[in-house]
Amino acid sequence: MIDLHTHSFFSDGELIPSELIRRAEAIGYKAIAITDHVDPSNIDLVVPRIVSALKKLKGFISIEAVPGAEITHAPPHIIQDLVKEARHLGAKIVVVHGETIVEPVARGTNRAAIEANVDILAHPGIISEEELLLAKEKGVTLEITSRKGHCLSNGYVAKEAIRFGVPLCINTDTHSPSDLITKEFAIKILLASGIDENRIVSIFEHSKALVEKALRRN
């Protein structure tokens, strides 16, 4: 399992990064990104702490642990600046909290995230055709999620992403230990989202490629 959207207690997760990583490692994860929620109020505090914590764990863990950030409920017009700041501070995977159908995310967030060349647009809800085409053009990955509530639009996201050739990944949006999943369960979620079995390998391969790209970033 490669999971590029998780939260520690640096935002609203329950675990410190080292325990979150150890629990993921214990159930067979190959890579995990710690992507705590950020906006202008905390980005300068959270991202450097994640970077520092993961740097100190290197050599003591058997999985790739990638520092990241999830820009969450930020006004669309500042998302591009926040993506740049997150990367400058050391986030190697930048996620934007998309227009999920279960929260009042500001309209325009999906488009702003795609225009900012975010790595992953999380739970994008009823994403428009125009946004799908832009995501394809810019190579932005859309998320299929195991997270309660956000997963309600998985079927729509999967169907439309496949129709327009937009890359997909599967993440957990983990906040507590019980949110972590095995690769076998991830496969079931992808199948339940309407994704053909023969496409699933390519989704896992794309997540692997995202990790490799992240690790090449300075």
* Cα distance spanning the termini: 25 Å
Helix content: 40-55%
Structural class: alpha/beta
Indicate the CATH architecture: Alpha-Beta Barrel
CATH superfamily membership, which one? Metal-dependent hydrolases
Q: Report the top-level CATH class.
A: Alpha Beta
SSE string = EHEEHEHEHEHEHEHH
Total strands: the figure is 8
What is the CATH fold-level name? TIM Barrel
DSSP strand (E) fraction?
Answer: 15-25%
Number of helices: 8
What is the rounded Rg? 16 Å
Please, could you describe this protein's structure?
The structure is a single chain. With 218 residues, this protein is α/β, with parallel strands linked by helices. It has one domain: Metal-dependent hydrolases (TIM Barrel, Alpha-Beta Barrel). The chain is built from 8 helices and 8 strands, in the order E-H-E-E-H-E-H-E-H-E-H-E-H-E-H-H. It has helices at 17-26, 43-57, 76-88, 109-115, 129-138, 154-164, 183-192, 197-216, and strands at residues 2-6, 31-34, 37-38, 64-71, 93-97, 120-122, 141-145, 168-171. Strands 1, 2, 3, 4, 5, 6, 7 and 8 form an 8-stranded parallel sheet that branches. Helix 3 (76-88) packs across helix 4 (109-115) and helix 4 runs parallel beside helix 5. The longest helix has 20 residues, at 197-216. It is globular, with a radius of gyration of 16 Å. It starts with a strand and ends with a helix.
